Structure formats: C-alpha cells, structure tokens
Amino acid sequence: MRGCQFVVQAIVSWTIVCFAASSLPNPRIVEHPQDGYIAKDEPASLNCRAEGEPKPKITWYRNGRKVETENPFSNRMIFPDGKLFFLSVVHNKKDKTDVGVYYCNATNIHGTAISRNATLSIAVLRSDFRVQPKNITAAIGDSVSFPCRPPRGEPEPRIIWKKDTELIIQDPSHTRFVVTDNGALNISQVRKQDAGIFRCIATNDAGERESAPAVLRVIEKPSFRRFPIDVTTREKKTVEFPCDVVGDKPLQVTWRKEHGNIGHISTLRDHTLRIEDVSRHDSGIYVCVAKNQVGEAEAVARLNVEYKPEFKVRPVDKSVGVGRSVSLQCEVEGNPPPTVYWRKRSQHASAEKSLIFPYKPDGRYSVKPGGTLQIDHVQPADAGEFECEALNTIGTASTSVQLKVRENDSRPPPVIRIVPQNQTLATDETAYLHCDAFGNPQPIVQWYKNGNLLSSDDLRIQQKPSGTLQISGLRVSDTGMYSCKASSETGETTWVSSLVVEVPDGSSVLFHRAQDSKSFPGPPSQPVAIEIKDTSIMLSWQPNSNSGASPVFGYIVEYFSHETTDGWVVVPDTIQKDKYTVTNLKPGTPYIFLVRAQNSHGIGNPSLFSQTITTKRPKAEIAAAIPADEIRTRMSGIVVEIVREKLLTLAPSGSPGSL
C-alpha cells in the first residue's frame, strides 16, 4: 500500500493511517547521487532529488564539508530540483579541487534525510596507444586481425573501430567483423570491398583518442584459368605446356622440374613452357608456379618421352665348368619399360631353346626381373649362342653371347673373403656393406636387393673397386636383404646380409653398425682330415692367436667339390670346438674345406684351403670295380703254394698290396 503507514494502536488492533505519496511530511531521498568520472575543465553534475512536506531544502557536502554554492565566484550551483552543477570541474595541486566524496542533505521542519555517498573522480585518458594497428595485405578469403591496445586511462577506455569515415557497428547478424575483448578487430572471409583505412578509437569520460590509420589491401591470389596437361611423346618432338594465370599484380610465373634441372626450354609471353627436340632425359614432372604478394599456386603436368629399348649392360662371352652356375647379365632400358626375354640359338630348329621370360623359370634356366639369365648346374649341352632380346611398343633390340662349357674344371668358385654383416642404422647416415672376393680368375662382384640387381641410377648408391657397397643418406625404404654375388667362369658365390633403417625418434631401437675388419678374429690354420669315411670327414684346425676385439665363440666350415653341382656349401651347425665332422658327403668324391672364426664383432677371413680330401668308397664297390678278365690275366702263370693258412686279399694293380 503505497503512501500508507502502519500505526500500532493496541496489542490486538491496528490503525492504518494513509497519506498521499507527495504529502508525507518527513524528508526522504528519492534519487541518490551516483559515483562518476568527470573530465577536467568540463561541466558536470550530481543528481539528488528529495520529497517531503514542506518541500525539503537541499544542501551538498564534499568530504564532510558543506559545498559553497552561494559565492558569485563559485563554479558550483544548486538547481531547484537539488542537482549540484559544476560550470567547470576544477582539479589542481592547491587543494582547489572538485574531486571527492559527495552526499546531499534534505531538510524541512520535520527532520533531515542524507543521501548515499557518491565519489566524483577525474577521468584520465592518455595520448599514446600501447599497440597501434598496422597495415595488412591479405588475400580474398583470408582472415585478418588488426591489433589495438588503447592508451591507459581512468575509467578503462572502451574500443570502437571505424573504416574510412564510418563506425563499424557490432551486428550479431554480421559476424565477419568482431572486436575482441582485448580490442583487436578480426575480419573473417575477407572480401575485395573490405579494403580501406581502419582506425582504432579509445573513449572514456575524459574524451577519446584515435589511433594511427592502418591500411587493409585485399589482393586476389593467383589462380589458373588454363592448366598444363600431361603429354606423351617421342624423342625429337616439340611439346608445350600452357599455364594461363590470373591474379593481382605484381605476378611472377616460373617453371621448375621436380628432381632435375630444366634444360633447353623457352617460356612464351603467356607463360607457356616450350621444350624443343625432347629427349628421354626431359621426362618428368613440370611445375608451373605463380606468385604474388599474398600467396602462390602450383599446377603440375607430366612429360613422358617414349623411346625404343637400349642396352645399359650387354652380356659378355663366358666360360664355365660343368655343374657350376652362371649368370649372363643383360640390363635394358626403354619407355615403355621393355619386356626382356632370352633364347638359345641353334643351327637346327628342333634344338633351339624356347623363349625364356622373367618370372617363368624353364628347368635350370631362369630370367631375373632385371633381365639376367641364370643357368644352374651347367651341362655340356648348354654350350652355344644365347640371345637377349628386348621389346616395347616403340621398337626392339637384341644382342647375343657365347657360352663355353669346360669338362673337369677342378678350380673352386670364388670365395668371399670379407662378408657383409647385418646392420641396423639411422636415417640420413651412410651404410657400408663389405664384400671382398677372390678366386682364379678374379671374380666380378654384383649387389642385389631383395633378389633384384641394384640400379645404377640412384646416385646415393655406389660400389667401390673393392666390392664394398656404399649407400649415402639412408632412407627407411633402403631396408632389405642385400646379396653380394661374386662371379667368374668357375661359378658363383653369394652371401646375404640384412640392412634395417629406422628413424631415430628416441625409441628403444638398438642401432648396430658393421665393425672394422680389424676387430674380427684372424683366420684359423689350414684344416686337416683326422678321420675319413665314405660319407663323412672329421676335420681339425688350430685357432688363430688373434681373436680380434672379442673372444671367439664359434667357427663356420665351408666345403666344395668339383664333382657336385652345389658350389660352396656352408655347414648349418654351430661349431664351438676346433674339430668337426662334416656329414652327408658323397662316397669316393674329392672335397676341399675352409674354416672361418666368428666373434661378437663379426666373421673373420677364411683359412687356407685344405688339401683335396677324397671320401672312401664302400668295400663292395671296390671289389666290383675289378673285372673278372683282369683277375684271370693277373693270375695267369702264377703257382700258389699254401705254406699255412692265411687270408690273401687282392688289390688293384699299382696300389699298395697289389700282387
């Protein structure tokens, strides 16, 4: 009940006395003064409105002392409604200041009412922006941000922005322009029409300050109106790659070739790339690069130059012993990649060997993926002329080679003196895979990765004259099984090792590099036979006094016979002593042996070859070897007198114990 007062008249009854709101006698403040900031030397006012009957008189106090308003020279006056008005706010060091804590007093004959306190402070806004916005050059569609930190001030200045001469109004329906809490202006999805001059405005009760202008330039990124397209052609032709670019200037258009240099080219006025008299070396990916101040764009096209097959490595005439293995190397290049196949020529069509293709072995014949013909367990009938042929859609190429087969060649195949070791290395390092081979004649060393002949096109990979394979700038893709093959007319010997390449990312990968050969054990002594049987031979040898950089923990035994087709055979057992019995040999067959020592650093050089050691023949086979006619001839005219019982054994003529 507005304007009503409750009067307690008795314990059990109430008397309600109501007055009109405007007719209450006691003074009361209906509008209190508020805290505020005022600008120095500027007009200001403090509100105070009171009601009562009779109408209260308003007086003002600052810091507990009455405010002088009646002096004609005073800068203060009180309006009829009670408002305290300042003609010009004073603030100086002589205690003549209008800053302070104010309250108003409303008084009539019924009493006095005092308002709440209100603090009047001088507003301050310094001149220098702490961070000024800077010029920006942006591309269409980009997002940009103009920073702005206003001058220091009391109260804290508020930031508004304007573009050119118009204020930027924060509209929730248009969110591309956003003023952040720290005063920066963010513009998303920049458009061409957003270009202009932007200013940051700091404002508070002391006034406003305007930042230095910042220019937004909006530029169109380069883009392609016409792209280059892939071209397939043949050598000696002329090709062109168009590159029609649009975008704001200055615009720079250049061409480059991936993984190579651009040679005999010319660029036309419209940025078209022309290559005249193309060769196979021009094949590759060409990139048109367009740049301006705000970005760049690239367009690519592939040039594919076709040419007929050509020989990178021609096979050479070879001579090989019966039972050995031989490789006839034939390496061909061409585009499209040619199909390589082999055939054996003969004067008689019926004796001519059918075509032999890669991945399709034909008995003892097989063609490796690179084009090399491999013949295992060579027979006398393999002698003759072999032809390597290559074919693609552009043309053909062929070359022939002679293979000679020798009977009873007792020379052993090549021996790999220093064998490659297993390694685990980090990317970007250099790997060395050793393969030092010897033999009569001196063998040729070739390297294979995962069964394929290593390409000579990768400049990171080099084979040293010693046979060592060097791979620089290792990549994870270099991981694989690497085979060292030593070949001569006496046959082939292969040793396989693994190379693992890992990225050094701090994990628990245990890297291991092949050690220097000086840390390997020295070669054992020449092995000798201490027991010979028909299918086994017991060998013995002496360790080398030089065990290398760590103790010897085992030996490796290898053996060879020219009467078999096996080449060098490595005994699969782990041999820890200095004697060993080699089993599963053929009776009556000559063998030679060698021994290597092994420590934790690697496998050492081989020993000297043993003397030729021949396994024994079974007794039944020896007796059957003397024909009956020969026995009768030997016994002819011989009189035997039995003096006492004694067993006589016949032996072949010319051997110990023969009659």
Chart the SSEs and their pairings.
Elements lengths: L3 E5 L5 E5 L9 E4 L4 E3 L5 E3 L2 E3 L5 E6 L2 E2 L9 E3 L5 E3 L13 E9 L2 E4 L3 E5 L1 E2 L10 E4 L4 E3 L6 E2 L3 E6 L2 E2 L9 E3 L5 E3 L8 E9 L2 E4 L3 E6 L3 E4 L4 E4 L4 E3 L2 E3 L5 E6 L7 E3 L5 E3 L8 E9 L2 E19 L4 E4 L4 E3 L2 E5 L3 E7 L19 E3 L5 E3 L8 E8 L4 E11 L8 E4 L4 E4 L4 E3 L2 E3 L5 E6 L2 E2 L7 E3 L5 E3 L8 E9 L2 E12 L25 E5 L4 E4 L11 E9 L8 E2 L8 E4 L7 E10 L2 E2 L9 E2 L4 H6 L3 H8 L24
How would you describe this protein?
It is a single-pass membrane protein. Pfam families: fn3, I-set, Ig_3. Keywords: Disulfide bond, Immunoglobulin domain, Membrane, Repeat, Signal, Transmembrane, Transmembrane helix. Residues 27-121, 127-217, 222-306, 309-406, 414-494 form the Ig-like domain. The chain is mainly beta and 659 residues long. It has 6 domains: 22-122, Sandwich (Immunoglobulin-like), CATH 2.60.40.10; 125-219, Sandwich (Immunoglobulin-like), CATH 2.60.40.10; 223-306, Immunoglobulin-like; 314-406, Immunoglobulins (Immunoglobulin-like, Sandwich), CATH 2.60.40.10; 415-514, Immunoglobulin-like (Sandwich), CATH 2.60.40; 528-614, Immunoglobulins (Immunoglobulin-like), CATH 2.60.40. It is built from 2 helices and 59 strands. A hairpin with a 2-residue loop joins strand 11 (100-108) and strand 12 (111-114). The protein starts with a strand and ends in a 24-residue tail after the last helix. 26% of the residues are buried. Residues 1-22 and 642-659 have low confidence and may be disordered.
Count, helices: 2
Q: Structural class, from secondary structure content?
A: mainly beta
Report the CATH topology name of the largest domain: Immunoglobulin-like
In terms of DSSP E residues, the strand content is 35-45%
Question: How many individual β-strands?
Answer: 59
Unreliably modeled segments: 1-22, 642-659
Separation of the first and last Cα atoms: 158 Å
Q: What name goes with the CATH superfamily of the largest domain?
A: Immunoglobulins
**Total number of domains:** 6
Return the CATH class of the largest domain.
Answer: Mainly Beta
Envelope shape:
elongated
Helix content: under 10%
Radius of gyration: 53 Å
- Name of the CATH architecture of the largest domain: Sandwich
* Average residue-wise pLDDT: 86
Main β-sheet description: 6 strands, mixed
Protein name: ROBO2
Domain Fibronectin type-III: 523-618
Main location: membrane
Domain Ig-like: 27-121, 127-217, 222-306, 309-406, 414-494
